[in-house]
Write a structure and sequence with these properties.
The chain is mainly α and 562 residues long. It is built from 29 helices and 2 strands. Strand 1 and strand 2 form a beta hairpin.
């Protein structure tokens, strides 16, 4: 069957997997949490619960499939009222159909979207359980009842409903979902003990054959490990991670998920000794799992990474003496190469030790790369004079790439807001590097603009050939000079000559009229954006601005004043 186009209320909180680094603090002993991963698992896992298998679709008569597809179409379009009516029509016509429990479930989900939560529970989900107790939808309905109570803030009812799910369907996907939701509820209430219990059930007692359940278990193993690391319980943390990671992957996983707890423990005087002991234990464990056969290329690469993990662990535990020891030992074991020196320099910069970082960069075998990193470190320290000197030295030594280094020197002056010096370099590059004249012309124009020298910027942008971008910048400069009519002329040229930019350009026309104090012209221009480009984001912006700034209600096909 066709999958739903939008998540239902029961699984609406989808968050980016990148958010799994966010940690919840505040419980005893600085316990760490990453809830967003669990929310993501819940959202992903809820999908199959409101779908019907192809085998069951095949059992429907043609008329039944036709009616159900109509309802599904409106459901996918998020037209909940019409979809609800179509599902209800199906139930009226085909109450004994194989698709009846499915239609009742989807009817209930529409009620949720329409914010009729009690109706969804009592007249919808419960009806599925009462009339079709052996259907797959009955199982889903038990979960959705619990989830809906949770969203209503009915905590006690939700807990009872989740308990019913776990009792009746302990091995089903809904049991996984229920535990994920219960973990979220426990987190909100600061119930650490319940979180640990549920994490352990997911990690050690849940079958991972289903790929969706597997992801929830993986997330739980990571969170359980982070908790145990916060308690300085290394063996328990490793036991949790070992359910997810292969032996060769474990050192990296241990270092990754110990990082946050170590940093938290090391941030207070009282817990810093615990952080130090935990870091020592982790280092010993990683080193015991480090390959010793350094003549083999793959084993050697793995060994290098393990030593890097040890250095990172000590860095998070605020043990700089140990970090130095690790890097010294690595130089003895593996020799000195640019990759190792780069890591050493990065660590020094993290400590604010820029001179030591530059000493490492100057040991690079690739001296040009090392010197470029030296220049970059001066920029990070805002020592722009030294950065420029270094780039100019590079330009003299690496003549084949001199324009690149001079461009970096100009950028350094711009960061220092020494505009004349940057402009002088760009003018020189226009003459010495004709192959990239467009690039340097643009940078020159932008520098004039950033310096507030708008007339010179306009002339420089006029020589650029990247329409409409140069016209956009010219118009912005004219607006900065309060030359409204010239800016308007440029925006109109953009709208005519570059159709994709027309909605944006016409919106800028409206804002420019507004800046110029021409209220009536501005209103007409905003309205024109709504009429000409009703389906664009610019029309939405113009609509909102007319309402807030001028108290005018605008449809995306015209406008009326209230």
């Amino acid at each position: 069957m066709a999958r739903r186009a939008a998540e239902t209320q029961c699984c609406r909180s989808l968050v980016s997997s990148a958010a799994q680094r966010s940690l919840y603090q505040g419980l005893a002993n600085a316990a760490l949490w990453t809830v967003s991963v669990l929310l993501l698992a819940r959202a992903a896992l809820a999908g199959p619960l409101d779908e019907m298998s192809l085998e069951r679709w095949a059992k429907l008569r043609e008329a039944e499939r036709y009616q159900l597809n109509i309802a599904e179409k409106y459901y996918r379009e998020q037209n909940w009222k019409v979809a609800l009516a179509e599902y209800e029509k199906f139930l009226t016509l085909y109450e004994r159909s194989e698709g009846a429990p499915y239609a009742q479930l989807k009817w209930s989900l529409c009620q949720v979207q329409l914010r009729k939560l009690n109706t969804a529970i009592k007249d919808g989900y419960q009806s599925v359980i009462d009339y079709w107790p052996n259907s797959p939808e009955a199982i889903a309905s038990r979960y959705f009842i619990a989830r809906t109570y949770k969203d209503m803030g009915e905590t006690q009812q939700a807990r009872k409903a989740y308990a019913a799910v776990l009792m009746h369907h302990p091995r089903h996907l809904v049991a996984v979902l229920s535990r994920v939701d219960l973990i979220e509820m426990a987190r909100v209430q600061g119930d650490q003990q319940t979180c640990v219990k549920l994490w352990r059930e997911l990690v050690f007692e849940t079958d991972r054959t289903d790929p969706l359940a597997r992801q929830a278990c993986i997330d739980a193993s990571q969170q359980l490990a982070a908790y145990y690391f916060s308690q300085a319980a290394l063996s328990e943390a490793i036991e949790a991670l070992a359910t997810t990671y292969q032996p060769a992957e474990l050192p990296a996983a241990v270092a990754q998920f110990a990082a946050g707890p170590l940093a938290t423990l090391a941030s207070t005087d009282a817990d810093r000794p615990r952080a130090a002991r935990l870091a020592d234990e982790i280092a010993v464990w990683i080193q015991s799992h480090t390959p010793q056969e350094l003549n083999d290329t793959q084993q050697r690469a793995r060994a290098v990474q393990c030593w890097y993990h040890v250095a990172d662990v000590y860095a998070h535990a605020r043990r700089p003496d140990k970090v130095r020891e690790v890097y010294t030992r690595m130089e003895q074991l593996f020799g000195v190469d640019d990759a190792l020196l780069d890591r050493i320099a990065a660590w020094h910069k993290g400590q604010g030790q820029y001179d030591e970082a530059r000493a490492a960069y100057r040991r690079f075998q690739d001296q040009l790369v090392g010197e470029a990193k030296v220049a970059g470190s001066y920029r990070e320290e805002r020592k722009y004079d030294l950065a420029v000197q270094t780039y100019q030295s590079l330009a003299g030594r690496d003549t084949d790439h001199a324009p690149r280094w001079l461009g970096e020197a100009a950028m350094s002056w711009r960061e220092a807001q020494k505009w004349d010096e940057a402009i002088a370099i760009y003018i020189g590059l226009l003459q010495s590097d004709p192959e990239h004249v467009d690039q340097w012309q643009w940078q020159l124009a932008v520098t004039y603009r950033d310096a507030g020298r708008y007339q010179e910027a306009i002339q420089a942008f006029r020589l650029c050939e990247n329409f409409p971008d140069n016209y956009v910048q010219m118009a912005g400069c004219h607006r900065a000079l309060a030359e409204w009519d010239r800016a308007l002329a440029l925006y109109h040229e953009i709208a005519v000559a570059h159709e994709p930019s027309a909605p944006w350009a016409m919106l800028q026309v409206a804002y420019t009229q507004e800046q110029a104090g021409r209220k009536e012209q501005a209103i007409r221009s905003f309205q024109q954006v709504c009429r000409r480009f009703p389906k664009t984001s610019q029309a939405s912006e113009a609509h909102a601005h007319l309402q807030t700034a001028y108290k005018i209600t605008t449809t995306l096909g015209g406008a009326t004043e209230e």
